[in-house]
Amino acid sequence: MSVDSAPAAEQSITGWSLGIRGTALCQYCTKELGEGDEVTAYAYRPVEDQLVSVARLYCSECNHREIEHPALGCYEWLAKARLATTSDVAYQSHETTLTGIEIIDQSGPQGDTL
Ligand SMILES: [Zn+2]
């Protein structure tokens, strides 16, 4: 199933891992983002690809709420999200993941609004 709708994108982004103990940074002001922070996540999927990737995060102060320059040939989404820590007890690892996803803007492969 390919992802081209907001609910499908929401599902793909939920639980997206930002890496083990990695610090996430706001793409705009480079503020460090930690557990519990409200962020805006930018995700995209090239039309020829099946997978959605989260490419950028913005802090709540930068308040990035619109896809300003839609990329042709890509489905793109902006989502409100919260950072959460997911622990895997078996491996004693902690990952920062995205939760509470809510799509706030999206764009289709022709730069159109879906
Ligand atoms: Zn910021």
Q: How is this structure best described in words?
A:
This protein has 114 residues and is mainly beta. It has one domain (6-107). The chain has one helix and seven strands; from the N terminus they run H-E-E-E-E-E-E-E. The strands form two sheets. It has a five-stranded antiparallel β-sheet with strand order 1-7-6-4-5, with helices on one face. Strands 2-3 form a two-stranded antiparallel sheet. Strand 2 and strand 3 (32-33) form a beta hairpin. The protein is globular and about 45 Å long. Residues 26, 28-29, 31, 58-59, 61-62 line the site of zinc ion.
Question: Quick recap of the structure?
Answer:
With 114 residues, this protein is mainly beta. The protein has one helix at 6-13, and strands at 17-20, 24-25, 32-33, 38-46, 53-59, 74-88, 93-107. The chain has one domain (6-107).
Rg, please?
14 Å
Please trace the helix and strand order, writing H or E for each element: HEEEEEEE
Largest sheet: number of strands, sense, barrel closure: 5 strands, antiparallel
- For the termini, the CA-CA separation is 18 Å
Please give the share of residues in helix: under 10%
- Beta fraction: over 45%
| Poorly predicted runs of 5 or more residues | none
Tell the overall outline: globular
Strand order of the largest sheet: 1-7-6-4-5
Number of strands: 7
Rounded average pLDDT? 91
Instruction: Supply the helix-strand structural class.
Output: mainly beta
Helical segment count = 1
Bound molecules: zinc ion
Number of structural units classed as domains = 1
